[in-house]
Amino acid sequence: MKKILLTFVSVLVFNLMTNAQVVEQAQDSIVLAEVAAEKQAQELKEQKRIEKEINKAEKAQKKAEKAQKKAEQEVKKRENLMDDIKSKRKSIAKDEKKLVKLREKMELDKIKGKLSPNDVTKTNKKIEKLRTGLAKDMEKLRKLEHKQ
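Given the sequence above, the corresponding structure tokens read:
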């Protein structure tokens, strides 16, 4: 009987000890779970902060690219304007030379007596057409120079 009682007491003590350890382990696992949850929440916050910084950097980069592109377009626009002005001046000079040449030819042919009244009319129409085109070109040049 003594042995049975001793066995019973030892089983009882053993159970109490294991239950006490289970409670400690349960509390430890709850604490560990809370620590893990806090750590995960902190990592999530850190990740969100990093994502925000990345987004800010991307926005700043896009803004810089947009400004650079706009500056390049402005430079290209100015170059095109300069080319247009140069081209218009060249065209005006060419038309003026043509006009002078046509007048000189008409005067020369008048002196030689080679022109019929019909030829004079045609030549005068050509001269008038050149003059109106020249006036339009001069106006366009004035506007282009004003844009500059």
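The radius of gyration is 49 Å. Try to locate this feature in the token string yourself.
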